[in-house]
Amino acid sequence: MIQEEILILKEISYKENDKILHALSRTRGKIRIISKGSKKSSSHLINASQIFAYSTCTLNVSKDMYILTSAKLLDNFYNLNKNMAAYYNASYILELISYVAQENEVDSRVFDMTVSVISHLSNCTYEHEKLTAAYELKLAAMLGYKPDFLHCLRCGSSINDESKFSVTEGGVFCSKCVNFGNGINVTYNEILIMDKILKSKFENIGFIEIPKTIMNLIRKFLFYYIGKDNFTTLKLL
Ligand SMILES: [Zn+2]
C-alpha cells in the first residue's frame, strides 16, 4: 500500500459501478487507477474520482493498475464550473500534461506547478490565457528547454535591442547576428516580457502585459519541443 498525491486528468466509466482514472501523481508521473464502486452515490471515493479532483490517497499496487482504497479530497476546483474560459483553459492544461507526462519523466515540481495553475485558473475571473501561456513556458523550461532570453545564441552578447527568437534553437539572435539563424522578429520589450513570465509566480502573471503574438510564440515553442500540436481541447480556447 502506498500514499500518493494525485490530480485526476480523465475519468472513464468501467463496468456497472467502477471508474478507471488517469491521474498525474506527485512522485510516480502519470498512473492508471481503478476506483471501485465510485459511480455509486454512497461511495466514499466519489469526490476523489472525478476530473480535476486533487487528493491525497492510498493505493494498492496490482498487476497493471493501481487500486484506490481511500482518498481525502484536497480540492476539486469547483469554481471552474462557473467560468467557461477558466474551465476550457484548465481542460487544455490536463490534456497537455497528460500527453507530456506520458512521454517524459516528470518530477514533483511539474505536479506542484500543474495543481497551482489549475487553482489559479479556478480562482481568477479573468487572465486565463495569460496563466496558460505562463504554464506553457514554465513547462518547457522544466522539461529542459529553458531559453536564455538575455544573451545572443551566436555571439553571447547581452540582448538590448530588437532581435529574432528562434523556436528551433531555443533562444535569441541579437541584431548583429540575425542573419546567422532563422527566427521570428521580436522587440526588446517582448523579449523582456518572456523573461519576466519565466521568472514570475502565477499570482503575479496578471500584472504582466502579454501580447497575443507572444502567447502564440510560447505555444509554438512548447509544441515544437514536445512534438505535438493537435490537442482537442485547444479548439475550445
Ligand atoms: Zn549576437
- Largest sheet data: 5 strands, mixed, barrel
Order of helices and strands: EEEEEHHHEEEEHHH
Radius of gyration: 20 Å
Give the second-level CATH assignment, the architecture of the largest domain. Up-down Bundle
Percent of residues in helices comes to: 25-40%
Side-by-side strand order of the widest sheet: 1-2-3-5-4
What percent strand? 25-35%
Reading off the top of the CATH hierarchy, the class of the largest domain is best stated as Mainly Alpha
The low-pLDDT segments are none
Mean pLDDT: 95
Shape: elongated
**What is the fold named in CATH at topology level of the largest domain?**
de novo design (two linked rop proteins)
Q: How many strands in all?
A: 9
What structural class is derived from the secondary structure elements?
Answer: alpha+beta
